[in-house]
Design goal:
Elements lengths: L1 E5 L7 H14 L2 E5 L2 H6 L2 E4 L5 H9 L4 H11 L4 E4 L1 H4 L4 E2 L5 E2 L6 E5 L9 E6 L1 E2 L14 E6 L1 E5 L5 E6 L3 E8 L2 E4 L7 H13 L3
Parallel strand pairs: 1-2, 1-3, 3-4, 4-14, 5-7
Antiparallel strand pairs: 5-6, 7-11, 8-10, 9-12, 12-13, 13-14
Length: 209
């Protein structure tokens, strides 16, 4: 099994590569960091990380010739298992409103809105409990109360509640995990979430949608 971590100059991939490679050894997976759309199209699993502002990440993804098309062909046309992380998860939405309205990939209905948490600092940064809303293979072995590491000021408001798999509490419910069909996304960073994050990465590598 070959796992492609998409490199589009939007975040430090070192920790993600290290975590996926660690769990990949257990799952018999080869992990590659690549900016080559052909490599992404051939992969058996695709991971799209993302750090920074939504418009900048979307522009950087669009700037890699053929990458959006390769992702769409693999994930939507051929149902290759896909995982978005942080802004990589947010780009699954139809639109983001950070700084300016920016189209997302539109793979999961909804939009990216600012976190409103009166009395709390935004961005939401640090460890927070997860609240698991519905069972999913990605969350096998993960329970409400387990901790994950977040760094974000915006969140995914899904259009269909069935696509919301887990939340965290930060002045109210904040989207933590989304998913539908062969597509999942985590707002938190599994590669920085210690045992919980490694469990989620391992679950993704073993997942057969």
């Amino acid at each position: 099994m070959r796992v492609a971590l998409v490199d589009y100059d939007s975040g430090n991939l070192h920790s993600a590569e290290k975590a996926f490679a660690l769990m990949g050894r257990e799952a018999g997976a080869e992990v590659v960091v690549t900016s080559d759309p052909a490599e992404v199209a051939r992969a058996d699993r695709i991971v799209l990380p993302g750090d920074g502002a939504f418009p900048a990440c979307r522009a950087a993804l669009d700037a890699v010739p053929g990458m959006v098309e390769a992702l769409h062909e693999a994930v939507i046309a051929r149902a290759v298992p896909f995982m978005g992380i942080c802004v990589g998860m947010q780009m699954l939405a139809e639109i983001g409103h950070e700084y300016r309205d920016t189209a997302g990939l539109g793979w999961i209905g909804g939009e990216i809105e600012a976190i409103r948490a009166p009395g709390l600092k935004v961005p939401h940064m640090g460890w927070n409990d997860l609240r698991v809303l519905r069972p999913h293979p990605l969350l096998d072995g993960i329970a409400t109360g387990d901790h994950a590491y977040f760094v974000h000021g915006w969140q995914f408001r899904v259009a269909d509640p069935a696509h919301l798999l887990a939340t965290a509490d930060y002045g109210g419910p904040v989207t933590a995990v989304v998913g539908r069909d062969n597509i999942v996304g985590t707002q938190f960073h599994p590669e920085k979430s210690q045992a919980v994050g490694l469990r989620i990465i391992g679950n993704f590598l073993r997942w057969r949608p």
